């Protein structure tokens, strides 16, 4: 009898519960790895930077997606989003299935495995097969490989074409990389109009790095009219997700009085949160020279109490 038919009955619940306990110790280590790696780093990489990490992270995203699919099989009678409790239950099952039993091979997962083994030509070939079938993660990964010349001859135009295919399917990493390629003039003169378009798409999906990058364009006036207030709003959205670049920019805006009144306590708070990003350390020293001991203590207290806001999931 399918698992989805067992759910909701007393015996089915007991069977599921006993199964989870039996799988717990087998899957705990792998589950911890998925949880640890599923969250992005504090600062998103520049275009094409750390392509290997981006591709390997795709495998972890795939595992999380598999868990969500398992959850929907176990809880088919609900139309709402899977709850965290259900997702954690499903993760235990999915991680065990993925890490403890032979996986069904497909072109995309083959590509990830080949890449992790540094067999870049085989990875590119596998990703191409998956990309030709319309898989956005494969299109993005293959685009990175063309961008960096890994396993294929470096080809910016091909990278752009692949990023566009993935970006059209709301792959935010592709949208951001595509926007940066247009902004930096990779393979052609800069096209800030297209850069703004794709940054807005990704920013609208809650992607902090896109919000920060779009804010920079509003500061410089490239592709959009210069607007410090819009830049401030975008930096704040990204900073609330613990983006160090945006936190640094907010610190400068409060220090210099751009779009907001000069506020050294706020400036110091954001500069502390930015850590050693760019010239944050130097600007903290500049700010301290103008602040009282009480103001410095207040800024440090606010920084200690600050907590990031979880980003929207694209």
Description:
By secondary structure, the protein is mainly α. It folds into 3 domains: 1-103, no CATH class; 108-190, Tetratricopeptide repeat domain (Serine Threonine Protein Phosphatase 5, Tetratricopeptide repeat), CATH 1.25.40; 209-305, Serine Threonine Protein Phosphatase 5, Tetratricopeptide repeat (Alpha Horseshoe). Helices cover 70% and strands 0% of the residues. The chain is built from 16 helices and no strands. The chain has helices at 3-6, 10-38, 51-74, 84-100, 107-116, 120-132, 136-148, 156-167, 172-184, 192-204, 208-220, 228-239, 244-256, 264-273, 280-290, 293-305. The protein is elongated, with a radius of gyration of 23 Å. It starts with a helix and ends in a 9-residue tail after the last helix. Residues 1-51 and 62-104 have low confidence and may be disordered.
């Amino acid at each position: 009898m399918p698992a989805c038919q067992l759910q909701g009955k007393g015996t089915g619940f007991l069977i599921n519960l006993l199964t989870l306990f039996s799988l717990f110790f087998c899957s705990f280590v792998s589950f911890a790895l998925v949880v640890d790696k599923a969250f992005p780093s504090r600062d998103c990489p520049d275009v094409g930077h750390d392509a290997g990490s981006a591709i390997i992270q795709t495998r972890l995203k795939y595992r999380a997606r598999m868990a969500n699919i398992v959850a929907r099989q176990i809880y088919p009678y609900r139309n709402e989003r899977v709850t965290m409790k259900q997702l954690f239950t499903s993760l235990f099952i999915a991680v065990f299935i993925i890490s403890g039993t032979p996986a069904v091979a497909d072109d995309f997962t083959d590509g990830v495995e080949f890449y992790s083994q540094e067999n870049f030509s085989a990875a590119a070939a596998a990703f191409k097969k998956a990309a030709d079938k319309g898989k956005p993660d494969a299109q993005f990964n293959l685009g990175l490989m063309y961008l960096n010349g890994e396993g294929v001859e470096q080809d910016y135009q091909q990278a752009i074409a692949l990023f566009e295919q993935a970006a059209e399917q709301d792959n935010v990493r592709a949208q951001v990389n595509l926007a940066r390629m247009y902004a930096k003039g990779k393979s052609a003169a800069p096209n800030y109009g297209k850069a703004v378009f794709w940054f807005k798409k990704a920013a609208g999906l809650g992607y902090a790095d896109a919000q920060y990058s779009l804010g920079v364009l509003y500061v410089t006036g490239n592709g959009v009219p210069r607007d410090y207030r819009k830049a401030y709003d975008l930096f704040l959205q990204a900073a609330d997700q613990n983006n160090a670049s945006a936190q640094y920019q907010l610190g400068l805006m409060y220090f210099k009085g751009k779009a907001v009144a000069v506020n050294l306590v706020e400036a110091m708070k954001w500069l502390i949160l930015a850590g050693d990003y760019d010239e944050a350390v130097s600007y903290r020293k500049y700010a301290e020279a103008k602040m009282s001991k009480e103001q410095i203590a207040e800024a440090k207290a606010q920084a200690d109490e600050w907590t990031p806001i979880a980003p929207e999931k694209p």
